[in-house]
Design a protein that fits this description.
The protein is an all-alpha fold and 192 residues long. The chain is 81% helix and 0% strand.
């Protein structure tokens, strides 16, 4: 019985070591990905912790170590989608996320710009969202994104191009609306 306990402990330690050897190099990029993905819906730390716990628990089922990051992201996406199904989106989530962003941003203007960027990213299709977040926010290379999305690098480049174009259009419209609202606000203030 004691030998069985020692073997089980040794297996757990080697599993932990193997898992950490794969996780450590992708940790920062994975956290940035989760942060961009969860904006306004749930806490980033919760998604990261739940994902890592599930990935570790099911680690023996991973067939190819090269697919580890894709495995983490699929797990995170599944958890995120489950969370969306459980919660109805309301302005409260968005307000809480913006308040948190304001507390860490260098200025209110930067916080507002980032907030509008995340809201614009939410309007992209799922594959484009993932590509833009992985490339622009998490810092992954196009070849790595292609591997994660199981497509060619030209498809990723196309998604990035279309996403940037759509984001630019969306953000310009947002800027025009903000300018209009500011003008109306000033006009109202001057009238009274």
């Amino acid at each position: 019985m004691y030998d069985l306990h020692i073997k089980a402990h040794h297996m757990t330690e080697s599993k932990k070591s193997a898992f950490m050897n794969l996780y450590q190099p992708v940790h920062e990029g994975f956290v940035r990905y989760c942060s961009a993905r969860t904006y306004g819906i749930m806490e980033t730390e919760d998604l990261v912790q739940e994902t890592v716990a599930i990935a570790f628990e099911r680690f023996e089922g991973l067939r190819d170590e090269k697919a580890f990051l894709a495995y983490l992201m699929r797990t995170a996406n599944n958890l995120f989608i489950s969370q969306l199904r459980r919660k109805k989106f309301s302005g409260v989530y968005c307000k809480n996320a913006f308040e948190k962003l304001k507390s860490i941003a260098p200025s209110a203007e930067v916080a507002m710009d980032v907030h509008h960027l995340y809201k614009a990213i939410e309007k992209l299709d799922k594959k484009s969202q993932e590509a833009i977040v992985l490339f622009e926010i998490s810092g992954f290379k196009i070849d790595e994104i292609a591997e994660i999305q199981k497509c060619g690098s030209s498809a990723v480049k196309g998604r990035l191009h279309r996403a940037r174009k759509q984001l630019k259009k969306e953000l310009l419209e947002t800027a025009d609306i903000q300018h209009l609202l500011l003008s109306l606000s000033l006009l109202y203030t001057l009238k009274n």
